[in-house]
């Protein structure tokens, strides 16, 4: 491992403030924006007050160092992971074997699984599959460090997201921001060492990112393949979305490059306005036939506020619209499936090439069931004896759902044996703590931080023909080290980009 660079230690220093001011202006000029949090907004009138207001999305002032070999590894395996999750989503016996029993202990997974079973007979109405994934990783140092960086860092997968992955647009804007700042002498001279920074090219250090194009390209090509130039793309969104600009970039790129209409609708609006043609199975909404239904919602129980919301999801699933993703993909992305994949012999079912298997397995960290199997009971005992080594996860997405370290025993002991099976246990990955300067609403803060790398991936296939399978850019999210999770909207995390060392 080469040396890491160091960044200014005094966030109040004049040159740091000046760089932050310069960065904020650049951010606002280039759409690195979010809607402000309106704490009391609950009614639509209150939400309306947020119209016309925006703030810059929180970002790291300096790109966080990331080992080049780990970055390359994550990029290399992305197409294999895309293929793996396509195979899992199409393996009914596998999904049933490993998810059916969860339906007795987890209402949300039960509901999704029921929807999957009910709509499975209609899947043949649309042989085109479109997926947009993000595989997330932390570096594992194996030792607790602050200023000193260990010699060996390994890439460990945190999770694989198959629905509603975000920040593919704003992540790209932050890569561009860091590349802009790099050329500003007053900024650049604040970064000290290592020697390799002076000898390597800007592109080698700050990899150009193209994640802003990946998703519009995949959506656009799926729309073309659907074969009706009059058809529209439907983005199914959450009401009052603060991260709307991340989504607008996608919409505008589709309009610019494919001249396609993009509709934004909540599940409730889909329920009220959409119908499926009984003969052609086309999904129609307000006079538009929908070629692709793309979800930026429907991943959490709170996205389904009423029975009508579930009916809307079912309507889309039964139609011949291309779904991004379909419910089988959503189930393939559960933490349970991630745990099952780490068991001896399971990856062999999907990945024949031993070299590829090894490359994927190198990123796995310890994952354990918490069910009544001998492995599950062993994990239960281990979690009680050494909770600080683990994180406990339910079948949920979107952050804020996990139980960490010493909080695990009371939670585990409060659950019946049956209900424990709704969770999995995972080894706590210990990333190195680095220092960076974070910018929130124009204010700077320096601190020990931890970075999580995400690699986006696009997949498009028609029957057995694979049309698109590639990595589609990257995202670095950085959080203050003292926070277990780094929600960007919640104020603990920022958008960042990697400085490859
Ligand atoms: P979600 O689907 O809600 O994003 P994650 O599995 O990504 O769930 O967990 C949320 C966050 O918790 C991650 O972004 C990471 O910061 C932290 N986390 C998750 N798993 C681990 C782990 N094994 N070791 C350390 N931190 C973890
Ligand atoms: Mg997730
Ligand atoms: Mg996550």
UniProtKB/TrEMBL annotation:
Catalytic activity: gamma-L-glutamyl-L-cysteine + glycine + ATP = glutathione + ADP + phosphate + H(+)
Record pathway: Sulfur metabolism; glutathione biosynthesis; glutathione from L-cysteine and L-glutamate: step 2/2
Chain sites annotated for binding ATP: 159, 335, 393-402, 404, 426-429, 452, 479, 485
Residue sites binding substrate per the record: 134, 247, 477
Pfam short name (any one): GSH_synth_ATP
A GO-annotated cellular component: cytosol
E.C. number: 6.3.2.3
Domain Glutathione synthase substrate-binding: 232-332
Residues annotated for Mg(2+) binding in this entry: 159, 161, 397
UniProt keyword Metal-binding present: yes
Cofactor: Mg(2+)
SUPFAM superfamilies to which the protein is assigned, alphabetical: Glutathione synthetase ATP-binding domain-like, PreATP-grasp domain
A molecular-function term among this protein's GO annotations: glutathione synthase activity
Cofactor comment: Binds 1 Mg(2+) ion per subunit.
Keyword Metal-binding: yes
Source superkingdom: Eukaryota
The protein's assembly and partners: Homodimer.
UniProt similarity note: Belongs to the eukaryotic GSH synthase family.
Annotated protein name in UniProt: Glutathione synthetase
């Amino acid at each position: 491992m080469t040396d890491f660079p160091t960044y200014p230690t005094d966030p109040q220093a004049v040159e740091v403030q000046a760089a932050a001011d310069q960065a904020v202006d650049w951010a606002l000029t280039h759409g690195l924006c979010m809607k402000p949090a309106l704490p009391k907004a609950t009614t639509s009138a209150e939400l309306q007050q947020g119209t016309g207001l925006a703030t810059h999305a929180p970002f790291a002032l300096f790109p966080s160092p990331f080992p080049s070999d780990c970055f390359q590894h994550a990029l290399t395996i992305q197409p294999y992971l895309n293929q793996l999750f396509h195979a899992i989503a199409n393996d009914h016996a596998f999904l049933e074997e490993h998810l059916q029993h969860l339906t007795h202990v987890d209402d949300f997974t039960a509901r999704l699984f029921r929807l999957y079973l009910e709509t499975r007979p209609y899947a043949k109405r649309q042989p085109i599959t479109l997926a947009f994934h993000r595989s997330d990783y932390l570096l594992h140092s194996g030792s607790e460090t602050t200023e000193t960086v260990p010699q060996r860092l390994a890439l460990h997968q945190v999770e694989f997201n198959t629905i509603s992955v975000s920040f593919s647009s704003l992540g790209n804007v932050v890569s561009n921001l860091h590349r802009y700042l790099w050329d500003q002498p007053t900024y650049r001279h604040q970064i000290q060492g290592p020697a390799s920074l002076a000898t390597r090219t800007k592109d080698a250090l700050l990899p150009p990112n193209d994640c802003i194009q990946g998703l519009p390209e995949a959506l656009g090509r799926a729309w073309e393949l659907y074969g009706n130039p009059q058809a529209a793309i439907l983005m199914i969104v959450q009401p009052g979305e603060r991260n709307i600009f991340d989504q607008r970039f996608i919409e505008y790129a589709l309009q610019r490059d494919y001249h396609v209409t993009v509709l934004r609708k909540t599940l409730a609006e889909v329920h009220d306005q959409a119908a499926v043609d009984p003969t052609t199975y086309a999904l129609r909404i307000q006079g538009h036939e929908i070629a692709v239904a793309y979800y930026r919602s429907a991943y959490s129980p709170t996205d389904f506020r009423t029975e009508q919301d579930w009916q809307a999801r079912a309507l889309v699933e039964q139609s011949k619209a291309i779904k991004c993703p379909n419910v089988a993909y959503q189930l393939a992305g559960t933490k349970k499936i991630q745990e099952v994949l780490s068991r001896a012999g399971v990856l062999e079912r999907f990945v024949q090439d031993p070299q590829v298997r090894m490359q994927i397995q190198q990123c796995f960290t310890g994952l354990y069931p918490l069910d009544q199997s001998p492995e599950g009971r062993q994990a239960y005992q281990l979690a009680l004896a050494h909770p600080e080594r683990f994180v406990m996860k339910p079948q949920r997405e979107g952050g804020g759902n996990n139980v960490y370290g010493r909080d695990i025993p009371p939670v585990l002991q409060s659950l019946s044996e049956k209900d424990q099976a709704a969770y999995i246990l995972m080894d706590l990955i210990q990333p190195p703590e680095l220092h960076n300067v974070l910018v929130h609403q124009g204010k700077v803060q320096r601190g020990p931080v931890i970075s999580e790398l995400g690699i986006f991936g696009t997949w498009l296939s028609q029957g057995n023909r694979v049309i698109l399978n590639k990595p589609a850019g990257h995202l670095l999210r950085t959080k203050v080290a003292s926070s277990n999770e780094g929600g960007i909207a919640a104020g603990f995390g920022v958008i960042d980009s990697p400085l490859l060392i």
